[in-house]
Specification:
9 helices, single chain, alpha/beta, Rossmann fold, 254 residues, 8-stranded mixed beta sheet
Length: 254
Amino acid sequence: MTYPIIEEDGFKYIEAGTGETLVLLHGLMGELSNWELVIEQFKDRYRVIIPILPIYDLPILTLGVKALSRYLHRFLKYKNLNQVVLVGNSLGGHVGLVFTVAHQEFVKALVLTGSSGLYENAFGGSFPRRESYDYIKEKVEFTFYDPATATKELVDDVFKTVNDRSRVIRILTMAKSAIRHNMAKELSKITIPVSLIWGKNDKVTPPEVAEEFHELLPNSELNWVDKCGHAPMMEHPEIFNAFLEKFLDRILLK
């Protein structure tokens, strides 16, 4: 990542640009670098901020989607941010949904890509062969339509993380919290504009999940990215950015 991580008052984040604020929320295993091409595209016209969600820092007894939503609330208040556009991938989308239900006054619009919150077919409840590099490589490749997107650097990072006992326990705790926290009955409360940007070949949160989100979110649009898995902003950043730009132009530049 070419942007320095800012650390202050217990928060860690990346920030670039000025203007209307986009807050990018990473997934459970997501690196900040997953968003690099989004930052590059939008930093000339928007203020882009990526908070590091404290998955490895919060007390494990309270760790869950709601705890991350509370952290996001503290962060936005600390930065004196209001009427932001939340953009979340996977778990980050789920955190954005939980936060928006509780604090819709902070959010001008929401963008979800491969979001959990309804159903996900992720790693499941364990990593039965986490010591096997080939097994982890296969799991990372499962995330994408094109396995080549799972670079050696990315696989190395995931392999290192899941073989850190403290971290893997937290990842599994977090994943179970996300699975338990189904949001189907709460989505109708979100009346702000929502853009769903979804990989048509997503195997983690399949297309029918996007269709259900679209049906349950009253002010939503659904955009498909063909030949794309769970992380469109990584696998097809140009298409993802084009959809995002069109949405932002519609809701912010009226």
